[in-house]
Amino acid sequence: MATDPPPSPVRFGIVGCANIARKVSRAILLSPNSTIVAVGSRSAAKAAAFAEENGFPAAAKAYGSYDAVLDDPDVDAVYIPLPTSLHRHWAVAAAMKKKHVLLEKPVALNAAELDEILAACDSSGVQYMDATMWMHHPRTAEMKAFLADDRRFGRLKSIHSIFSYNSGEEFLKNDIRVKPDLDSLGALGDAGWYCIRAILWAADYSLPKTATALRDVEFNEAGVILSCGASLHFPAGGVATLYCSFLSNLTMEISILGANGFLRVHDFVIPFKENVGPFYVNANTKFARLSVGIEPEPTECVARTDLPQEALMVKEFASLVIKIRENGAEAEKKWPTISRKTQIVVDAIKASIDKGFVPVEIVE
Amino acid sequence: MATDPPPSPVRFGIVGCANIARKVSRAILLSPNSTIVAVGSRSAAKAAAFAEENGFPAAAKAYGSYDAVLDDPDVDAVYIPLPTSLHRHWAVAAAMKKKHVLLEKPVALNAAELDEILAACDSSGVQYMDATMWMHHPRTAEMKAFLADDRRFGRLKSIHSIFSYNSGEEFLKNDIRVKPDLDSLGALGDAGWYCIRAILWAADYSLPKTATALRDVEFNEAGVILSCGASLHFPAGGVATLYCSFLSNLTMEISILGANGFLRVHDFVIPFKENVGPFYVNANTKFARLSVGIEPEPTECVARTDLPQEALMVKEFASLVIKIRENGAEAEKKWPTISRKTQIVVDAIKASIDKGFVPVEIVE
């Protein structure tokens, strides 16, 4: 019995040689349904060196411009790890050239910019996804199953998330993430993005009603946020707090409290080990007799994966691209929708900081 | 060679037969330098039953009033687990009768009331301590040593603490902690007390500059707080958030983030196991190559104890009483000082809730 040959892999072009592109390039090469056919940098030599250093297929083209990648008819999809301030221009340009867009976060400087990107993707019928890797770890779905269990977790009451890293002197001087003309959102857009996404994810993507920045923000001399926090208040009840920073030890926490249960994870952004994702739950916990100890104690759950989460992200993205290409499917709306909600909350927290820590109402 | 006999144990009177008094009575009997000589209730029969059920020494007296305990010349010190609204009267009365005071938390309905208690203790030269048990676990000192290590922890950046328990229907209907005339502070005074103490402890007892309640508070019909949260902002920089509740799963978290390290503990109020106190630290954590994983992974530290933390609390309190009695020492000021700071923050969060979630300035 004859079977159809597997669909040909999605051919990626890499637009820019940022450090994070090394990790995502490896992911594209690891994913079974994708490959790399081109890379563009402002210098062709830099692009060629990047291709070589990262084990690109020998046939991959190294271009001295981003435009050349978008003009290459062999490129199906682009991965864009450029500075945030360049996202609108290049993501829109890519979509106009019918390239599917995998966009590094923060996806834009604000929701209005993102809306231009999403409109371009929509009008071209290309898939859009932001590069939030942890969403694609099997652990994320397993944690969600716990949160959805009314008996073991129940009504959502409170969420706390931290993502911080101690970025060091060189980063604080030279990284694009601390330059007001390249990424004015600083730690809020970079590290805070993950916390906000985690909170939205835990709340089934219901948008908070208000965002209030915490009264302690660190800025660099150019006014870029180096650390901040916020509280979010959900219309159906429940509250979330987050803290993000370039000036604190590398920490990646989510804790989620429900009426009947509690979940925590300590490496949600990047698992400590690539092939296992542990998380810890407790349900229907009671004090033991005389309030000495508790019953039951927390349980460690472990989700295993052969592919690292970033390769699973690429695999998911590429499978959506293949569906569009092979079946004429429409682009999957989930990814632009949650990307936009994340950006809206980023914007609200930024506005609360700018306005002196007042509560900012969130409207979709 | 003759040695001095050990000082005679501190003789406790128990003022009220609340449930928590069972645990503390056991602790008094476990501690090597204390014993129980009397218990008072509004009914002598109830006091006698309580003494019997909790293994009091046969000679212990069971009184039908609280006054009788304070009038008993054999009583050196009292433990007061009465409803919060009665603390001022009975703690002041005890101090006036020269009884040392171990006071259940929340210690008073507000700082002004507590000041009356502390003034009475001060003028009588008796020791005051609030019954915040976890302060006395050896784990607490071990965690503090980590936080004080500049190389491994560094400057304090952010703290989050949760204490919640799902109290159940019977509690929500009948417990003194949800009755406006008995304990109008509700979950904030009860569970929130621990979170606030944890935050102050982590911040070396520097008082926050402002307290802002989070915009999601649950009240019962009588207006007593069943759940709430707050953010605290420290004058030297650094921010803390807390969440306390009678309506969420039993959860007891502290996470403390510094420039160079991170500490978390999951059972800070009541250790999961009575004789071990685990906590988790990470210091100088870096992303591994390609930002795949981190180095080093967190370390589990375990503090062991033969006596449960509540017995260590009693032992510490009794040792201070013995120093006063044997050496004419002055009462140790640390305990009233941190109790008062905790109450001041409770008051500020309550005021922020009452005023519609505005930031409330904290003045000592």
Report what the structure shows.
The structure is a homodimer of 364-residue chains. In chain A, strands 7, 8, 9, 10, 11, 12, 13, 14, 17 and 18 form a 10-stranded mixed sheet that branches. A 6-stranded parallel sheet of chain A has the order 3-2-1-4-5-6, with helices on both faces. Chain A is globular. Helices cover 34% and strands 27% of the residues of chain A. In chain A, helix 5 (111-124) links the parallel strand 5 (100-103) and strand 6. The termini of chain A are far apart. The mean pLDDT of chain A is 96. In chain A, helix 1 (20-30) crosses helix 9 (309-327) and helix 4 runs parallel beside helix 5. Chain A has 364 residues and is an alpha/beta fold. Chain A has 10 helices and 18 strands. The interface between A and B is large, with 67 and 67 residues.
What topology emerges from the helices and strands here?
The structure is a homodimer of 364-residue chains.
Chain A: E1 10-15, H1 20-30, E2 34-40, H2 44-53, E3 61-63, H3 66-71, E4 77-80, H4 87-96, E5 100-103, H5 111-124, E6 128-130, H6 138-147, E7 156-166, H7 168-174, H8 186-202, E8 210-213, E9 218-219, E10 225-233, E11 239-245, E12 247-258, E13 261-265, E14 276-283, E15 286-287, E16 294-295, E17 299-304, H9 309-327, H10 334-354, E18 360-361
Helix pairs in contact in A: 1-9, 4-5, 5-10, 8-10
